[in-house]
């Protein structure tokens, strides 16, 4: 699984980071950033939760 955040849609609500801090962080402007590369299996549910919590639907998950 890989996750990505589309910067065109992310407005910095921070819900991804709030709900899945091991997978999502925030940049200096408060916009979401995702772990790069393959998400470890132990964090996959967390990644889904963070993605689902995005009100802008800016997060994509590739299985």
Automatic annotation (TrEMBL):
Pfam families: Fer4_15. Gene3D superfamilies: 3.30.70.20. One of its GO terms (molecular function) is iron-sulfur cluster binding. Keywords: Electron transport, Iron, Iron-sulfur, Metal-binding, Transport. This is Unannotated protein.
